[in-house]
């Protein structure tokens, strides 16, 4: 099990898991066959062969079966009782390993592989290319839970330090006034009680190089996606972020929701900083997110999606059913509640994603291009059907007319 966990940290996609699993099965089958024929558990082989061979759990397991098989080969054989597990059996000409040794070895290697699995899981980049440093466990902040820096890029990538972009200076007067106000407040480390989110010079630079294998690198220029954003987002408001494709709207949301680490500046959400892991875990409890691309399972119905996410959010089980029904009614999906999401139209999927984002009365909701939903959603807000939503960050780049 520990070995399987460890291997799974290297497998990013479910589709490749089948191939990797089958490959390991074949390798295990062959090495078990070799073990059954006597390699390397006999005096003819050096001890280090046995040690290396035994790190692959199926091999030691095969040796245990081998010993047990020999002990029960004929009807007269008595087998091996629990008390005899430490003693060498009479049929063994060279007693190299006992069943007890195998038990101890398998239990110890379970912990070894399991710890390695946790370690690799932390240092190997996730789907967003985010990972912890190679020596993350040596930093006190990891153990106290008060921080810990996330990094980006592969383990053996080759980017040096990126020069931060110069902050883009706004040309609009009102934007400049807002920026100066936030800068002033940030300098005094004060947050207006009416402000839900204070973005303080948020910068995001995607590293400018990528690694090809471990030895060859090709360097491209770093890309500055968000260049110093200063803005206060008030409570009880619908805030819309408008901009053309590639303006950095999704990047801003990803930074605020902790999907990707920020490269400069800071943002406070209800007083919690997105820079610290402790702050981020508090933020996650109070936000709802509808990502730009739907993350839904084709085989589940809308109702099942709602029930699943409601239980993940920790809603009491007695309320889950009614919350699911209510939310689906709000996004006009009641009729399709028992239909699998795989057969939904694009708009229906977006509406379901919005309903999921609203589960558990989040204080703050991020909606990244909900397009089809915006009319329903805005009218719901305006008619106070969702009074719990304090602030919505709403992103749109096309249907400007809808929000006018
Ligand atoms: N993982 C990434 N690596 C490098 N560049 C990226 C990455 N994600 C986004 N970008 C770039 O950052 C810019 C902003 O992207 P995005 O925030 O998705 O824009 P949008 O405003 O359309 O949501 C785009 O030019 C995009 O190419
Ligand atoms: Mg986007």
Automatic annotation (TrEMBL):
Classification via SUPFAM superfamilies:
P-loop containing nucleoside triphosphate hydrolases (SSF52540)
Transmembrane residue ranges: 20-41, 102-120
Protein name, entry field? ABC transporter domain-containing protein
| UniProt GO molecular function | ABC-type transporter activity; ATP binding; ATP hydrolysis activity; lipid transporter activity
Keywords (A to Z) from UniProt:
Membrane, Transmembrane, Transmembrane helix
**What GO cellular component is one of the record's annotations?**
membrane
The organism's superkingdom is given as: Eukaryota
Which parts of the sequence belong to the ABC transporter domain? 197-403
Does the keyword Zinc-finger belong to this entry? no
In which organism is this protein found?
A: Aegilops tauschii subsp. strangulata (Goatgrass)
Q: Which Pfam families is this protein grouped with?
A: ABC_tran (PF00005)
For whether the record's keyword set contains DNA damage, the answer is no
Q: Which family does it belong to?
A: Belongs to the ABC transporter superfamily. ABCA family. CPR flippase (TC 3.A.1.211) subfamily.
């Amino acid at each position: 099990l520990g070995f399987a966990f460890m291997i799974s940290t290297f497998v990013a996609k479910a589709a490749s898991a089948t191939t990797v699993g089958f490959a390991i099965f074949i390798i295990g089958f062959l090495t078990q066959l070799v073990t059954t024929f006597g390699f390397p558990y006999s005096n003819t082989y050096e001890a280090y062969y046995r040690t290396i061979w035994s790190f692959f759990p199926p091999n030691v397991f095969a040796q245990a079966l081998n010993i047990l098989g020999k002990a029960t080969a004929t009807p007269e054989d008595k087998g091996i009782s629990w008390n005899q597990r430490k003693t060498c059996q009479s049929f063994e000409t060279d007693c190299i390993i006992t069943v007890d040794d195998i038990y101890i070895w398998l239990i110890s290697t379970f912990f070894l592989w399991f710890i390695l699995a946790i370690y690799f899981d932390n240092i190997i980049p996730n789907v967003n290319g985010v990972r912890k440093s190679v020596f993350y466990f040596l930093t006190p902040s990891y153990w106290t839970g008060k921080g810990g820096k996330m990094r980006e890029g592969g383990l053996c990538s080759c980017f040096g330090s990126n020069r931060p972009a110069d902050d883009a200076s706004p040309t609009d007067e009102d934007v400049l006034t807002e920026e100066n106000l936030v800068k002033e407040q940030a300098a005094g480390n004060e947050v207006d009680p009416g402000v839900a989110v204070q973005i303080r010079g948020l910068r995001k630079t995607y590293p400018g190089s990528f690694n090809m294998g471990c030895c060859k690198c090709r360097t491209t220029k770093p890309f500055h996606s968000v260049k110093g954003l200063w803005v206060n987002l008030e409570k009880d408001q619908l805030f819309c972020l408008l901009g053309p494709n590639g303006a950095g709207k999704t990047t801003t949301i990803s930074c605020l929701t902790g999907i990707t680490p920020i490269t400069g500046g800071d943002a406070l959400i209800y007083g919690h900083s997105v820079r610290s892991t402790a702050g981020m875990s508090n933020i996650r409890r109070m936000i709802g997110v509808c990502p730009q691309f739907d993350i839904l399972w084709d085989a589940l119905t809308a109702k099942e999606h709602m029930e699943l996410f409601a239980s993940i959010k920790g809603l009491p089980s007695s309320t889950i059913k009614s919350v699911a029904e209510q939310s689906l009614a709000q996004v006009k999906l009641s009729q399709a509640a028992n239909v699998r999401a795989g057969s939904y139209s694009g708009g229906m999927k977006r509406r379901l994603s919005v309903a999921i984002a609203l589960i558990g009365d989040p204080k703050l909701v991020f909606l990244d291009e909900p397009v089809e939903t915006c009319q329903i959603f805005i009218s719901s807000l305006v008619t106070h059907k969702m009074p719990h939503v304090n602030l919505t960050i709403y992103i749109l780049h096309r249907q400007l007319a809808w929000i006018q």
